[in-house]
Fold each of these.
Amino acid sequence: MQTQHHPLKSATVGTSRSLTSLHYSNGKPGPKVYIQAGLHADENPGMLVLHYLRPLLQAAEDAGQIRGEIVVVPFANPIGLNQTLAMQFHGRFEFGNGQNFNRNYRDLAAMVTPLLEGKLGADADSNVAKIRAAMRSVMAKEKAVNELDSMRLTLQTLACDADIMLDLHCDSEAILHLYIHSDQQEEGAELARYLGSAVTMHAPASNGQPFDESASGPWAALREAFPDAAIPMACFASTVEYRGQKDVSTELATDDAERIFTYLRAQGAVDTGSLPVRPELPREVKDLAATDVIRAPISGIVEYHREPGEMVREGDALVSLIDPLTNDKHTLVSGVDGLFYARNRIRFAHSDMELTFVSGDKVVRSGYLLSAR
Ligand SMILES: [Zn+2]
């Protein structure tokens, strides 16, 4: 395993931060896999998963079993890790400019399109190689304007030419769920099998440029830009939501690490001499636009009536908001039949706060589908 340190552009004189990437390889041909955790710095379950994944990868490398390269970034956000205010940890938005750490990655398709005019043809492998070379070349020329930009640029540069990219996050209170690109539903179902995810949701590009879309989205965009060329979705990317923020435990993380390792064996990134047994798909891939989100129409004390992981029916009471002055109770019901997979951990709602998420079959939303810009 090789360790690389990536200094970030200093925010102020006298301060410096850096990212660290771990590179597992036996110098053999194979896919490039990129896995990071903690991009939202206060989402720590995935960071513990990588703690338990690293020895599995090291043992595989010691046994000469790595095909291609596996890149692990154990913590993707050293800026956010240092953000506390009034004894609370805030790792989702950068204090300096209020931006979400998982938005505004560079639009690689737009950057490489001018370089590829007239160069792509009917050979998909050749096209992938040319596109990746162009991506590496444009990223190498980018100059970061500040510390946050330099963090984004470093992470995206490490991931831009990957075949598989997993970005490990968590929700507020939730069961395991996955986000994938709409053009990669089969690949997403494979990941869901091995990780044991009952909620896998697909969406086309959101325009918010989150990290996962910065890896998979360019391939969809380049297909549209060059309709006559053979361009596969060469990078499968997923945001893996490892349950809720408090679900940081040895039992969960060791099992999750073993599941990722088994998935990597199934994908040919690790060759232990045999393929793993392919698990059942817990539940089919759903449209993210079929997720019913209840937002608080009024402020109040939050009283939940159901737990994440429960199947619910349209009209079932999920949450009530209680006005402590009038003592009125306002109960809100599910708009769909589906799997209740996430809810807000905060128990006092301000108006318009997102409260509950139910993944169903009926499209009920349109427009911008990501939470908390
Ligand atoms: Zn997150």
Note: The mean pLDDT is 96.
Amino acid sequence: MGDEKYQIKIPDIDYFRKMIKCQDACPVNTPSGSYVNAIADGDYIRAYGLARGPNPFASVCGLICNHPCEKACRRGSIDEPVSIRALKRFAVESFMKATNSNVYKSAELSTAFRNGNGIFTGKKVAVIGSGPAGMAGAHDLARLGYKVTIFESKPVIGGMFYFGIPEYRLPRDIIKFDVDSILSLGIDVRLNFTVGKDATLQELFDEEFEAVLIAVGAHLSRPLSIEGTELEGVFHGISLLRRVNLGERPELGDRVVVIGGGNVAMDIARTVRRLKIKNVHSVCLEGLHEMPADKLEILEAMEEGITLHVRKGPQRVVGNDGKVAGLRVIDVAAVFDESGRFNPKFIEGSESVIEADSVITAIGQASDNDCLKGCEGFKATRWGTIVTDKSLNIGIQGVFAAGDVAAGPGIVIGAVASGQKAARAIDKYLRGSGHKIEKRAKITVIKDYKKPAEDYVKIERKKPPILGVEERLSGFNQVEKGYTEETAVEQANRCLKCNINTVFNGELCIACGGCVDVCPMNCLKLTSLSNLAGDENLDKLIQNRYGISKEEYEKNKDEILSSMNGAAMLKDEERCIRCGLCAKRCPTNAVTMEKFEFEEVLVNEQSGAIIN
Ligand SMILES: Cc1cc2nc3c(=O)[nH]c(=O)nc-3n(C[C@H](O)[C@H](O)[C@H](O)COP(=O)(O)OP(=O)(O)OC[C@H]3O[C@@H](n4cnc5c(N)ncnc54)[C@H](O)[C@@H]3O)c2cc1C
Ligand code: SF4
Ligand code: SF4
């Protein structure tokens, strides 16, 4: 191998945590692999508990989570990721069936901190906005012992769950289940109450709220700067969705053009299609493969008869008698410049008009921070996003912001994580320092490791079934159906069990190479120490293992390593399928299969004692 060395990493707790890629990628660190495996074991209620623990919106997320876990899933590097989101839905449905949708039982499964066992602190906190960020913040604050009141300007709780995400993707009874579970903690809600109009922030403090969490989302549509947007028949996408979701049926005519290539634009086009409008066009600057919308959303929109006009730049809304008559567009040569920046180039002379009765814009969202009217000491970007520090404080004492209003338009699970972070910051602010969060690992040696299902590496990913187009367009019926039990168990068995690790004990190993020979994935290698390159952790390990002083080691490192008989076991984690054959083959039990579980605990800063 010449001078080339193996670049290695000595596994530590952080390494094993990062090995569980699904959990590591989830903003609230849901132990996705664990609930997937609980489903594989037939324990669906435990699966729900594992999903619900860190996430009060587990049921909603089972349907519409943007699933960063799946994007990170290690199975994706072999073929396709495990269907983690759809399996969560299966666990949720199993729990609801088994408990008759018992919201109290669901609430009991939360693992959010309970400072002082949730005993009422006597302090009041106001939360402005009842979307996922505000609700998750309220949930965690209530668990921490605060008396929480949510102020919501609309007549319904749920933020974008109700006003943005269409019912055909997220049935309202699922939102209600999660919302009721959160409210069962004793949280008060004042609906139809707009902070900034019905009360100022100062008036909330006057009402003896000692801290305020602003979670007002991003409900404004960014304006499209082209001629003709003042014409009758031009709509802002977010407000149009809100009206339809509240039961209104706005007059849109027979031909509708939606401008935008993201998920929100797809939701609008598909919603309009369900209003029995046949002629729906979707126009965007990007090419089909550049569109920011999920591929599945685009595909389903096309199946539903929406005409896509890709690589078209809107130039002008064409009018007739003050009303929309069409959208003039120009072909796009390129959307991004050479450095990858958004900088569209157009093809002169390629202009055309798409005839339409209505034009709906969906080119981005902005936040309305009128709830801070009259306040000083905070900053906001040009799109209304409130600037926060690391603790999500906005520069005014006792006032914090979370979710889309603090981070810009994002995803549900990001908003939940942000609300949770704000709750912890508020707790620290109101209680003073004295406690801190520690990440801890629980490691269990698995004595009788059960090999994963036969041929599990060959099981293909199956998409959940969906309704036929005709049935979809007959109203707002839920498009995606759940897995059957049989499919759920089969799909769960695709998991590579990344929370199980092969742990090699150097004291017991006799370097027979049996594990290397038996490994079906060729991911093990025994090699001499002199072939290794690593960081100071490798140096420390060798010094400790062979009793060499730091000074001596640093002086004669190469000589020491080449004169040693020592060997190291290298493992390529990406390829390991946790079959356990290495552990089974080892004659000295030097290889064990060990389960790693991680949790965050709230501890007393001085004594280290666990508080929750
Ligand atoms: C059409 C659409 C589809 C989406 N689909 C998905 C999806 O499939 N998956 C996903 O992960 N994410 C999706 N998102 C993104 C996701 O919905 C948001 O990131 C998330 O809802 C943000 O949560 P939030 O709590 O910050 O704000 P919001 O959910 O927007 O809630 C804010 C709440 O504050 C209230 N409010 C505002 N001002 C005041 C005031 N002054 N006083 C009192 N109350 C006030 C509002 O009425 C609202 O109820 C979608 C977004 C849209 C628009
Ligand atoms: S294979 Fe399983 S444990 Fe590994 S990242 Fe995917 S879901 Fe998680
Ligand atoms: S568990 Fe299987 S794939 Fe992983 S190292 Fe051991 S033998 Fe190889």
Note: The pocket of iron/sulfur cluster (ligand 2) is lined by residues 20-22, 32-33, 36, 73-75, 82, 84, 495-498 (CB under 6 Å).
